[in-house]
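anyone else get weird line breaks when pasting these?? whatever heres mine. first is seq + tokens for prot A
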Amino acid sequence: MAEQKEKKITAVGLIGLGLMGQGIASCLVSSKLCVVAFSRSPERESQTCDRIAEALKQLWKRKIIPQSRISGWKKRFVFVRSLDDLKDCPFVIETVKEDLRLKQEIYDKLETVIPARTVVASNTSSIPISRLQQGRKYPERFIGMHWAEPAEITRYLEIIPGKKTSARTVRLTRELATICGKEPSVLNFDIRGFISNRLMYAMMREACYLVENGVADIETVDRSFRNDIGWWATIAGPFRWMDLTGVPVYAAVMEGLFPELCNNKKVPELMKTIVERGAQGISNRKGFYKYTSSSAREWEKVWLEFTHDIRKLVEKYEKRVKLAGAN
């Protein structure tokens, strides 16, 4: 018997409206999707509306979206007080903090509300999707959907199937990603940290190692990274970069360098020290660098503008890269 034809996704349930949730809400609304959003914190409603309004303004100003996507957006964002109100959403995204017990409590409630065919995507960045599927009534509908902030601007999205995720769930998640203007990376199977986080945290561990061992200070390590890897990483991944600059030399360097790289399995002391001092980064003006209220705000503005400019740069070269045979 032929599979029932799926209706196009027009409404998405969203659970959690922290920084990441607000960005995802902005992306969904800017894509003309209806969002039914739930948060345990009522004040998140006005915060998210402010974020969406500003995001739409900037996206239109930079000619990323037409005026038609802004008109009537407030009707497309509905803040609800109960998970029961997500029952009619064919797709639900969960983006609460990295707390397995909290996520399980949410899924327990969801399973009493939503139909069996509703897709449930988690924005987890570290918990294996296969673990989230354990004990679920319909594990085949669970999938990882790893976004990047600011979600309404970046092209990044990783889609991660767990051991029991169905092909239908993967297909629908990819379709939603395309509607949102993403370039989704679909993993073949579940692995902790997925792709970008595994690459990024290996780099962060080595950066901490260099500082802890006195090779250079924090600012110097950042400078080298920005002016080398940061220069080419937008247009080329590590494999494309090796092709562009000569594969054999990398094999030769790996042979001598790999034994010298840090392979510590514990959190670096540098990281533990600043966390113990209460550092959260820009949000509380305490991090690896010192910030005033004004400098923190300026960094947030610079980062947002830079992200827009990077998107524009990528789009400038996108067609030429595809013609050259990029995957």
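and prot B, same format (seq, then tokens)
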Amino acid sequence: MAGGGKDTILQKAIGEWLEGIQSERTRLHSEQVTGEFVAFIQASQLPWEEIFTIETLKDFQRASQSKKTAGVIRALSFYLYEQQKIAEPILQANYQLDLPDLYEEYLDWYEKRSQVPYRRVKHARRVLCAFHLHLERPKVELAAVTIGDVDAFLAGFQRRFSPATCLAYRSSLRSFLKYLYQERKLLRRDLAPLLGSARQWAQGRPPKFLRPPEVEQLFGALKLSSAWHIRTAAMVHLAYTLGLRPKEISRIRLDDISFSKAELTVADRKGQNPLSLPLPEQTVKAIAAYLIGVRPNSKERTLFLTLQRPYGSVSAETVVGCIAKSMRQAGVPGSAYWLRHTYAQHLLETGVSVFEIKMMMGHERIESTKSYLHIHTKLMREVLFDETL
């Protein structure tokens, strides 16, 4: 790759990545660090394949005048990895352990099956590296693992982490054990249910959703004054009226949309559960406005493209950042996932069963759907107290 081409790709990728950062303070710091990083790479004249390595990162840290540079460059490398522009991101030392093939096959299966971002795979790798080292000391084979081995591992491993982090690591380990039992038939007994724990919500609160006045406030504040605003408006409509995940929005292709039927086929879903969903009129209009007035003339078949050349598919992080920024500008609290929770809640309030909501949300388990839904207090008051609100 020529030097000019390398610099252009790097600067374009940095611009797209910065666009998806929600916190202004974090974005300003990241701009400063990445600016120094680009200058460092240009001065070093490194080939593309040597830019995002742990050795280059250490050299940059020694040369940089900024603080907390490692986290910024690692985060950028995760973005580039998800965009398939580099072979692997920069991993911390405790993620560098070469795991046996069975572990690596699981991580590959987990990423493809669950459609999770690489940071989730990274978290799973961390706990599996530690679990593998724990089993190596007494030479316990995976096929012979017992719940006692798992409990002994967690007792030591979880001491350093917060309850929320421990919950995430337990979930990763539970998924691995289920894989060994159901997919590989390696374990005689499914140990995953034995790792169950009381559900914990971030900051002690359940998922959030918007109330009707907040929904009106959000859509009333959407603007069509620039290419960014028009593209973001289409994303907001898709997130709210169809309950799509940010990654699902980023992966919509032109061939998935039928304007004659007013339908969207969501083919690339978490859990591999494709589904055709009806497109409300306002969502059809928002998509059409983007296609006619904003979307670049490109051979790329993905619906949402970047706003700068060379045009390419947006990432899930860009969708998250755009929706979050539009909500902040409207003075409405929340994130892209709040719109997904709102969609589920509105389905419940219109009388749709939990099982139907499960299918429309693309969940594999009914428990996942139930966690999105709050008690319908309005309906409860109407039934119990004969009140009309």
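btw re prot B: The first strand starts at residue 257 and ends at 258. Residues 24-44 form the longest helix (21 residues).
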